[in-house]
């Protein structure tokens, strides 16, 4: 078999697989068994077999380079959902989408930046920073989105690609087996997070932190396993250890139920920010942002940005969280089959009606 035949086979295989958008079989991007189209060009089977061997590593590398810069949970230690390099434009958009007082947002970002500038230089005996920020508020106010967006803004502020966002999945740590929850928490903080910090600065998102740091004073030993208490103990011990060892870690915790979080955890927070329900002005900004985004797909909806009744709609939204306001707009788009088929035809009257309905439902829920 000549080298020319092998080279021809390599070119044919590369051309054949260039159109593949996803891996098939065991080798990413290589569809080795399906060689009929290549054989039909006159290349021998022997040449194809010889040509495939050197191509596989290069093709796999090419496929890997085209994946998102996010490590999935299949490749990560227990308790870590994913790790994402920041800055990240998608996370930046989350930050922008949370409409709230700009002064509060600036305070949040400034505290986060201080974590990475001060803690490495000033002893904790002078200022005992633990590197923990906590976001509280009702469900739907945007705490998780704000936390993820904060990671982007921190990296952007430092103009650095060395930062990573580490997202924790707290529910995966719980276990009915005696002592296992405590061990899982210790392994997560003491090993996985510590090792992640050795490669550079990280922002760790602890969503629903009351799952990991439940208020021990309000738990009944009869109704709750001792493991819950020990897990909270483990979290506190590890936070102290990481604060001493890794000043390049910032924890951002969120909670819908701050009263359920252990007092000792709260005392370790460097800043606690309540993410409030939007007032009328914020509701108006959220509506404009939502309708503006929709108008990029349905240009005819631009008329709604200055439509009469938008102010009334914002007033009707007071009492709803940001997520509920955006879902309300979707409800208006589904107000009847004709509008659902042509979302751009939605009227302001339908959006106002949907807002009033959503508010009534929320008021009923609050009274229940």
Q: How would you describe what is shown here?
A:
There is one protein chain. With 368 residues, the protein is α/β, with parallel strands linked by helices. The protein has three domains: 3-65, no CATH class; 70-274, P-loop containing nucleotide triphosphate hydrolases (Rossmann fold, 3-Layer(aba) Sandwich); 280-367, no CATH class. The chain is 51% helix and 9% strand. Strand 5, helix 8 (226-245) and strand 6 form a beta-alpha-beta unit. Helix 1 (3-17) packs across helix 3 (45-65). The longest helix has 21 residues, at 45-65. Residues 16-41 and 45-68 have low confidence and may be disordered.
Features:
14 helices; seven-stranded mixed β-sheet; 9% strand; 3 domains; 7 strands; 368 residues; Rossmann fold; alpha/beta
Strand and helix map with partners:
Elements: H1 3-17, H2 36-39, H3 45-65, E1 70-71, E2 80-85, H4 89-97, H5 102-118, E3 132-136, H6 143-158, E4 164-168, H7 180-197, E5 202-206, H8 226-245, E6 249-255, H9 263-268, E7 271-274, H10 280-295, H11 310-317, H12 322-333, H13 337-341, H14 348-367
Parallel strand pairs: 3-6, 3-7, 4-5, 5-6
Antiparallel strand pairs: 1-2, 2-4
Helix pairs in contact: 1-3, 4-6, 5-6, 7-8, 10-11, 10-12, 11-14, 12-14
């Amino acid at each position: 078999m000549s080298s020319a035949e092998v080279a021809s086979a390599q070119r044919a295989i590369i051309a054949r697989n260039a159109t593949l958008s996803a891996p098939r079989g065991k080798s990413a991007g290589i569809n080795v068994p399906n060689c009929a189209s290549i054989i039909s060009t006159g290349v021998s089977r022997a040449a194809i077999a010889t040509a495939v061997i050197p191509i596989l590593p290069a093709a796999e590398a090419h496929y890997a380079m085209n994946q998102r810069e996010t490590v999935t949970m299949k490749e990560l230690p227990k308790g870590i959902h994913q790790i994402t390099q920041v800055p990240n434009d998608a996370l930046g958009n989350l930050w922008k989408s949370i409409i709230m007082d700009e002064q509060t947002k600036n305070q949040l970002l400034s505290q986060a930046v201080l974590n990475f500038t001060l803690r490495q230089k000033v002893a904790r005996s002078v200022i005992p920073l633990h590197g923990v920020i906590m976001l509280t508020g009702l469900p739907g106010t945007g705490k998780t989105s704000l936390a993820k967006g904060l990671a982007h803004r921190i990296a952007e502020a430092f103009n650095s690609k060395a930062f990573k966002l580490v997202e924790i999945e707290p529910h995966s740590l719980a276990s009915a087996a005696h002592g296992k929850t405590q061990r899982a928490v210790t392994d997560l903080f003491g090993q996985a997070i510590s090792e992640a910090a050795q490669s550079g600065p990280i922002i760790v998102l602890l969503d629903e932190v009351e799952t990991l740091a439940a208020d021990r004073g309000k738990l009944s030993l009869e109704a709750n396993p001792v493991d819950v208490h020990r897990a909270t103990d483990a979290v506190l011990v590890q936070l102290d250890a990481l604060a001493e060892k890794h000043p390049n870690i910032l924890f951002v915790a969120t909670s819908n139920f701050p009263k359920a979080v252990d007092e000792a955890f709260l005392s370790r927070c460097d800043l606690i920010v309540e993410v409030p329900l939007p007032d009328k002005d914020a509701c108006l900004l959220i509506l404009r942002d939502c309708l503006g985004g929709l108008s990029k797909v349905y240009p005819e909806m631009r008329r709604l940005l200055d439509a009469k009744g938008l102010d009334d709609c914002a007033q009707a939204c007071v009492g709803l969280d940001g997520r509920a306001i955006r879902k309300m707009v979707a409800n208006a788009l589904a107000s009847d089959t004709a509008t659902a088929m042509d979302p751009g035809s939605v009227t302001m009257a339908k959006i106002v009606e949907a807002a009033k309905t959503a508010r009534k439902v929320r008021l009923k829920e609050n009274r229940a």
